[in-house]
Amino acid sequence: MTTTTVTTMDSCLVAGEKTSPTLQPIHSDQIRGLYSSVPSGVAAVCALIGGQPDGMAASSLVPVSLDPPLVSFCVQNGSRTWSRVRTAARIGVSVLARDQSGACTALAAREGDRFAELDWHAQHGGGVFITGAAAYLDCVVESEVPGGDHRIVLLRVVAGGSTDCAPIIFHNSRFGSISENDPTATE
């Protein structure tokens, strides 16, 4: 294998030929930075607990299966929020829209009332949804699997719907969106 010197320009790799970076062992303190280079959507995972909305932001929502309809997300081991939300009969998953960075921040807060400034609604069964989201999934917990310092949660989708809103994207520790007018975007 030949290595080539690669120049970084506008955060993209530029070289006279296709090339790959030289891979090096990664240390645990570097892994968060490496993972932040993977863009992801942000979802609100919420339910009514004791008659009050409870929930969190998750940037790891992934479609898993069409038949049966399943999605997954990851939650940190020991999450007190997830320990409460997982007990609900139904869990609302709102794929947050590009103008909802405030909702992302509120739902990721460690303290305070996460829902104080949010417009939300509950469905029959207790799933809570953030108004104005790009998509809504009404779910039940299918299973949970250990995954290092997180748990992988598999949710069965029992109902859902989408809007014309574009989703928010989390990349390099910042919120953004995919632009349909971006000439570098692929179709």
Automatic annotation (TrEMBL):
Gene3D superfamilies: Electron Transport, Fmn-binding Protein, Chain A (2.30.110.10). This is NADH-FMN oxidoreductase RutF, flavin reductase (DIM6/NTAB) family. Residues 35-177 form the Flavin reductase like domain. Pfam families: Flavin_Reduct. Keywords: Oxidoreductase. Belongs to the non-flavoprotein flavin reductase family. GO terms for molecular function: FMN binding; riboflavin reductase (NADPH) activity.
